[in-house]
Amino acid sequence: MKIAISSTGKTIDDVMDSRFGRCNYFIIYDLDNDEYKAVENKGITSGHGAGIAAAQQILDENVDVVISGKLGPNSYRIIEGEGITMLQAEQDKISNIINEYRENKLSHQKGAGAAHVGLK
Question: Structure pTM?
Fold first, then answer.
């Protein structure tokens, strides 16, 4: 099982980014073998449609779960349409969030957050 976590950096010692479409990286963590990789978010440089680009990138990684802050309406709709579980976490180290996931301490996304326009 693979989870994707929006991240400020490339390692599990970095902090989760509460933004989905405009995060710097996604940490793709494979729970079956405790390995991960960092994937640079292609959506970060989009003037418009960052959430769509980020969501498509997540779909390409074949993840089962997405963990972030609130997802925007476009990314939420795409990910929900694929049946991927969306969970919400508070900003913390990625390694702590992985442990919270394993302990079933994260809450489900209850809908999309506000849309964001433009570069950060």
Answer: 0.90
